[in-house]
């Protein structure tokens, strides 16, 4: 009897926590089906009285600029994830396998770099990008985001490489394989959870990025989703809340799909990479 009561209490608490966490998303979804007048009504109605798809129709027929931001977001997020993975694999493998004088200091520097807020480096980053003529370019934005992602992902991959026995690499080396061949053909298949975790982490963090995009990009045709929506659809005097919530739902869809299919791999990767040995 006590076990049954304990289970009821546990699952009830979990349901309440889930409802609390998902309530904002549910509110956004329901508001996207309201008219703008109903969205402004006070007191607000939780369930739309007259559900309408007008905001979604307007989004897909009248707001082509939104899909420009959407495309830019995919390009920047995808390129950032791939480049970050390449650098994280090489740097993580080097930190894990090569022991030299400055090894600990490099690891400490990577760790310390994560302690500073993103906004603290925006002025110097803008100045640097201006000097090398990468302001208002996707290349500059991608490089800035890769630089922000590399420290954490390098330490994450180093943790994964530590779980691979060195004896496997030594046996392959004796058989005539080179260092890169060992890394690509033998070690990488053993750290697939880490690879998936790095790609998803870099993609998710880039997809939601606002500060880098709004600082380094002023050309409307090159803006990503967060910056473009904030600057074009959020006015100073009034908002079209129905349209904004529709944009939010459409903007969340790729992340929801990605997390739904790769949630197990991502959680497994992040947890496994935190344990060495």
Description:
The protein is an all-alpha fold. It has one domain (62-273): MetI-like fold (Orthogonal Bundle), CATH 1.10.3720. Helices cover 75% and strands 0% of the residues. The longest helix is centred in the first third of the chain and has 34 residues, at 64-97. The radius of gyration is 23 Å and the shape is globular. The two termini are 42 Å apart.
Question: Which helices and strands appear, and what pairs or packs with what?
Answer:
Blueprint: H1 2-31, H2 36-39, H3 54-62, H4 64-97, H5 103-113, H6 122-131, H7 138-162, H8 166-174, H9 179-190, H10 192-207, H11 211-216, H12 225-232, H13 241-273
Helix pairs in contact: 1-13, 3-13, 4-7, 4-10, 4-12, 5-7, 7-10, 8-9, 10-13
Mean pLDDT: 83
The CATH topology turns out to be MetI-like fold
Radius of gyration based on Cα positions: 23 Å
CATH homologous superfamily annotation: MetI-like
Give the termini separation: 42 Å
Gross CATH architecture: Orthogonal Bundle
Please write the string of helix (H) and strand (E) elements.
HHHHHHHHHHHHH
Largest beta-sheet characterization: none
List low-confidence stretches. 273-277
The total tally of domains equals 1
DSSP helical segment count: 13
* CATH C-level label: Mainly Alpha
How many individual β-strands?
Answer: 0
Beta content comes to under 5%
Short structural description:
This protein is mainly alpha-helical and about 280 residues long. It contains 13 helices and no strands.
């Amino acid at each position: 009897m006590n076990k049954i009561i304990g289970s009821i209490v546990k699952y009830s608490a979990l349901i309440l926590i889930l409802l609390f966490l998902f309530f904002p998303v549910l509110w956004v979804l329901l508001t996207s089906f309201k008219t703008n007048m109903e969205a402004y009504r006070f007191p607000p109605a939780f369930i739309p009285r007259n559900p309408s798809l007008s905001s979604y129709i307007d989004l897909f027929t009248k707001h082509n600029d939104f899909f420009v931001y959407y495309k830019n977001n995919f390009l920047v997020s995808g390129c950032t994830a791939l480049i970050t993975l390449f650098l994280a694999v090489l740097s993580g493998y080097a930190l894990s396998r090569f022991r030299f004088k400055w090894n600990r200091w490099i690891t400490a520097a990577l760790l310390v770099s994560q302690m500073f807020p993103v906004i603290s480096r925006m002025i110097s980053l803008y100045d640097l990008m201006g000097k090398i003529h990468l302001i208002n370019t996707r290349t500059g934005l991608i490089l800035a985001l890769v630089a922000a992602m590399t420290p954490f992902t390098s330490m994450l991959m180093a943790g994964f490489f530590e779980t691979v026995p060195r004896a496997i690499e030594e046996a392959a080396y004796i058989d005539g394989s080179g260092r890169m061949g060992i890394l690509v053909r033998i070690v990488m298949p053993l750290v697939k959870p880490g690879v998936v975790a790095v790609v998803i982490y870099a993609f998710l963090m880039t997809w939601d990025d606002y500060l880098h995009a709004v600082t380094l990009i002023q050309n409307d045709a090159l803006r990503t989703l967060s910056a473009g929506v904030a600057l074009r659809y959020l006015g100073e005097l009034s908002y079209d809340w129905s349209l904004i919530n529709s944009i939010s739902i459409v903007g969340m869809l790729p992340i929801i799909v990605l997390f739904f299919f790769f949630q197990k791999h991502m959680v497994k990767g992040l947890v496994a990479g935190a344990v060495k040995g």
